Amino acid sequence: MTRTGVDPAARVCKSSRTHNRDSHLQCKNGILGEMNGANMAEIQPLVAGNWKMNGLKPALGELKKLTNALGGASGANTDVMICPPFTLISSAAHQCNGSSVQIGAQDCHANESGAHTGDIAPEMLSDAGASAVIVGHSERRADHGETNDMVNAKAQAVWRAGLTAIICVGETDTQRKAGETLEVIANQLTGSIPDAATAANVVLAYEPVWAIGTGLTPTTDDVAEVHAAIRTQLEAMLPAGEGRKVRILYGGSVKPSNASELMAVPNVNGALVGGASLKADDFLGIIAAYT
Ligand code: PEP
After folding, report:
1. Probe target for ligand 1 pocket from 47, 139, 273, with the most ligand atoms within 8 Å of CB
2. Of 49, 50, 44, 39, the residue nearest 28 (C-alpha)
3. What pLDDT is recorded for position 6?
4. DSSP character at residue 31
5. Which ligand 1 atom minimizes the distance to the CA of 255?
6. pTM (predicted TM-score)
7. What's the CA gap between 29 and 281, in Å, rounded?
8. Pocket lining: 274 vs ligand 1, CB cutoff 6 Å
9. Which element (helix H / strand E) includes 185?
10. How far is residue 208's CA from residue 255's CA, in Å, rounded to a whole number?
11. What is the residue extent of each domain of the chain?
12. pLDDT at residue number 239
């Protein structure tokens, strides 16, 4: 993920996590993929906050609390990102410059410019200081009729602007109750992930729609099953070795009280957090699952 003024190639993976990291790789485009000696991907986690349509200028005070608590870029063993509304991206990025917190956006148009009133191009988001863009969030899919094809096009547009695409997938409650979860996720992955996806340009977020903002979460066994299926499919879809390094985030009612349990599930490489990212203390409580 690029941040304004930072050469992504100059960012080097941190190897300070205590568990099982024998070597680390040079980051490509800021994505931090690390390998242990056991032929398994050891992946630097990402905890990303999605502020949705929340936050006026005073909300930057919460961001300040976050950066103060987390300190500078060096020493972080977990990547941390906040995706504020478009109106706050530029000031948030400015405020986070030199900190370990990256700024992302929540959506974009697939085109670079043109007659698209009210839309925003990924190039504009990059210009404002974003390093990543969430695409295909279930609220976009439901409220704006976004299809897998549209999400796919947006992800490619995000890359065109040199940013990382955080692609969201997740089943509805009806689909879950009909036993269709794995099939739904498989179809969303096939349709939404462009062929040129790599661990450097994509983060995947599994967000069961019924868990978003409801306080409900799947069992850890259910999360493990879906994340394992996503990992298997990513390994089959992506070019050599990339699928096992892609970060797969879990999202849906993550809070400080359940973060440790959810983040310990195999193939969960971080969290996409909505409500609990609005307050620095709550968000820090989630990040603490990795310390
Ligand atoms: C989200 O919408 O991405 C999300 C995970 O929301 P919440 O954490 O509030 O469930």
Report:
1. 273
2. 44
3. 29
4. B
5. 8
6. 0.88
7. 29
8. yes
9. helix 181-192
10. 15
11. 45-290
12. 86
Average pLDDT over residues 85-93: 98
256 touches 288 (CB < 8 A)? yes
Query: Closest residue (by CA) to atom 3 of ligand 1?
Result: 274
Q: Which residues contact 137 (CB under 8 A, 6 or more apart)?
A: 50, 106, 107, 168, 207
What does the longest C-alpha to C-alpha distance in the chain come to? Answer: 52
Three-class secondary structure of residue 5 per DSSP: coil
User: How many whole angstroms separate alpha carbon 64 and alpha carbon 100?
Assistant: 12
pLDDT digits (tens, 9 = 90+) for 97-128: 999 999 999 999 999 999 999 999 999 999 99
Catalytic residue among 139, 146, 171, 207: 207
Taking a C-beta distance cutoff of 8 angstroms, is the pair 224, 265 a contact?
yes
**Predicted local distance difference test score (pLDDT) of residue 92:** 98
> pLDDT grade, residue 72 (50/70/90)?
confident
Residue nearest atom 6 of ligand 1, based on CA coordinates: 274
The architecture CATH gives domain 45-290: Alpha-Beta Barrel (3.20)
Q: Quick check: is 171 catalytic?
A: no
> What is the number of alpha carbons within 13 Å of residue 72 lying toward its C-beta?
2
* Burial degree of 189 (CB within 10 A; 0-12, 13-18, 19+): buried
Provide the mean pLDDT of the chain. Answer: 87
pLDDT reading at 31 higher than 50: no
Query: How far apart are the CA of 99 and the centre of ligand 1, in A?
Result: 24
Catalytic residue status for 116: no
Does the beta carbon of 262 lie inside 6 Å of ligand 1?
no
